Amino acid sequence: MHLSLCLCAEIPQLVLASKLVLIMHHREVSKTTASGPLALRALKHSELHVHGVRDAPLDLNVLHGAGRRVMLLFPGEDAAPLSASLLAADPRPVTLVVPDGSWRQASRAARRIPGLERAERVGLVPGPPSQYGLRHEPKAEGLATFEAIARALGVLESPEVQERLEALFARMVRVTLSTRRQARAGKETANDLATEIANDAAALPSRAREHAASLEVLYRDAELVAVNKPAGMLVHRGWARDGVPALQTLRDQLGQPVYPVHRLDRATSGVLLFALSSEIARDMQAALQARAVEKRYLALCRGHDPSLALVDHPLAKEKGAPARPASTELRLLGQFERYGLYEARPLTGRLHQIRRHLKHVSHPIIGDVRYGKGEHNRIFRDRFGFHRLALHAWQLRFSHPRTGMPLRVCAPLPPDFAQLLVQLGLEHAVRLDS
């Protein structure tokens, strides 16, 4: 790794009353994808305990009886919410034990390691889901270990501690993605790679800042609000240079808390639905899980095949993880030279599903710097002045969680996408009543 990407000088040295004890299986310690060890570098007086080593069983009874309150951060049903009221009941400083791994691995560690059965089990209160997608979990709230540690210390210590840790984690993710992108570049030239990185990491956030003052409201009632998210705007809080996210923008715009029902990729524009209470958010997320919400996207691709109607191809959230069933319906709306405008209806909700499915059938989306083709992205930049991902969340159809009334929320195409369709002669291919 280039020295300019080294994080060592940016790692804070935090001396806290709370003590972190990180538990890792010996096979996980050497993995570069493990995020927990980074927290150990930032938190003085933290400890790493390794289990699973033959003839060296781990016993954590030693943590008890030292005038400290031992808490196990574990997302079980019997876990008490980690809150100020819970801390007020016992003012002793806390030793926070965190198993680094999946929920299944954490559950095994909690059952098998002596001393953990005596710890108080605590869980994080519901908060915004992770934006990074580093944890392969069936739950939307699945967090990377570092994220969970930061949020827990936000309660145990202060919001400032949480912010400093989350800033470090965001920097780590950015460096990791940068190095992976360099590795993926392969046969691409250095200039091509630099251009694509600039489009993905700089140009899009700048466009988000342009739109951060307000969001176009497409629908609003007492329970729900839908907005037209511009390309380049994150849904949740992100890196420092990513501008103001949609959640914070809408919260400030409405003057009340909002709760995201689903997510869109930063580079994708279109319908984004929020609930105005946590209860409605849970109801809508349950409807999404039950496939009772229909999503329709517009995607401009390299390739046009009228017979391409369904992509049924399992997808894994990350390399090495098990693939899960994934299906996307497709309908060709129009074509221009080698390119086709498709309506895409994802029947499941996997990470980057539409983009990955269209790549799988050799129909990469224009402007996709991760799954697309640099050759075609450059053609649209140079020939049409189009510098973004050609994917737009067009429509959202569902039944209202309170009244049962059928709703259809439509997001007009942003000016750059609409102008592109005019240039291609495809402006009449998109019909609102279709």
Short recap of the structure:
The protein is of the alpha/beta class.
Characterise this structure.
The longest helix has 27 residues, at 159-185. Helix 1 packs across helix 4 (145-156) and helix 4 runs antiparallel to helix 5 (159-185). The protein has 11 helices and 16 strands. Mean pLDDT is 83; it is low at 134-141 and 187-212. It folds into 2 domains: 3-174, Alpha/beta knot, CATH 3.40.1280; 210-424, Pseudouridine synthase (2-Layer Sandwich). Strand 15 and strand 16 (406-410) form a beta hairpin. It has 434 residues and is α/β, with parallel strands linked by helices.
List keywords for this structure.
Pseudouridine synthase; Alpha/beta knot; 2 domains; 10-stranded mixed sheet; alpha/beta; 434 residues; 6-stranded parallel sheet; 16 strands
Strand and helix map with partners:
Elements: E1 19-25, H1 36-42, E2 47-51, E3 69-73, E4 80-81, H2 84-88, E5 94-99, H3 103-112, E6 120-123, H4 145-156, H5 159-185, H6 190-210, E7 216-220, E8 224-229, H7 246-254, E9 259-260, E10 269-275, H8 278-289, E11 294-302, E12 310-312, E13 327-336, E14 339-346, H9 353-360, H10 374-384, E15 391-399, E16 406-410, H11 415-424
Parallel strand pairs: 1-2, 1-5, 3-5, 3-6, 4-6, 10-15
Antiparallel strand pairs: 7-8, 8-10, 9-10, 11-14, 11-15, 12-13, 13-14, 15-16
Helix pairs in contact: 1-4, 4-5
Please state roughly what percent of the residues sit in beta strands, choosing from under 5%, 5-15%, 15-25%, 25-35%, 35-45% or over 45%: 15-25%
Q: Low-confidence spans: pLDDT under 50, at least 5 residues?
A: 134-141, 187-212
Structural class: alpha/beta
Output mean pLDDT: 83
The major sheet is characterized as: 10 strands, mixed
First CA to last CA: what distance?
A: 50 Å
Task: Give the overall form.
Answer: elongated
Task: Using the 3D structure, state the CATH architecture of the largest domain.
Answer: 2-Layer Sandwich
The helix-strand sequence is EHEEEHEHEHHHEEHEEHEEEEHHEEH
What is the CATH C level class of the largest domain, in words?
Answer: Alpha Beta
- CATH homologous superfamily title of the largest domain: Pseudouridine synthase
Per the CATH scheme, the topology name of the largest domain is Pseudouridine synthase
User: What is the count of β-strands?
Assistant: 16
Helix content: 25-40%
**Count of discrete alpha- or pi-helical segments spanning 4 or more residues:** 11
Count of all domains: 2
Output the radius of gyration.
23 Å
